[in-house]
Design a protein that fits this description.
Elements (H helix, E strand, L loop, with lengths): L1 E7 L3 E6 L4 H7 L2 E2 L14 E6 L9 H7 L13 E3 L10 E4 L4 E2 L7
Parallel strand pairs: 1-6
Antiparallel strand pairs: 1-2, 3-7, 4-5, 4-6
């Protein structure tokens, strides 16, 4: 099973498989995602704002929650919208995230 996730403002759209992280799905589908740590939840560079479909996004686990402690202070008005693309999974349709810098990888072969 998979669901389509939409990334604004760049217009990326790709399938996220059950249990797959947003960043892993984007990479598999041929997109480059802003990151420094490569998906280890240590840099928080990959963070997204979930702007639609929050009900289709499972709660953050302990690793993600700990990594987000400092970052959510910047979004104190609604800290629940901030998630790490390297950790967050999707469990339904209608998810739209805000993350500038997501773009197609050039010259790479993907599944």
């Amino acid at each position: 099973m998979s669901w389509t996730v939409y990334v604004r403002p760049g217009g990326a759209a790709f399938a996220v498989r059950e249990g797959e992280t947003l960043m892993a799905a984007a990479t598999r589908e041929g997109y480059r995602w802003p990151t420094i740590c490569g998906g280890k939840a240590t840099c928080t560079t990959c963070f997204v704002q979930v702007v639609e479909g929050r009900a289709s996004v499972p709660p953050a686990g302990l690793v993600e929650t700990n990594a987000l402690r400092m970052l959510v202070k910047r979004f104190a008005d609604d800290p629940g919208r901030i998630r790490l693309a390297c950790q967050v999974t999707v469990a339904g349709d209608g998810v739209v995230v805000l993350r500038p810098g997501v773009r197609r990888a050039e010259g790479e072969i993907h599944e």
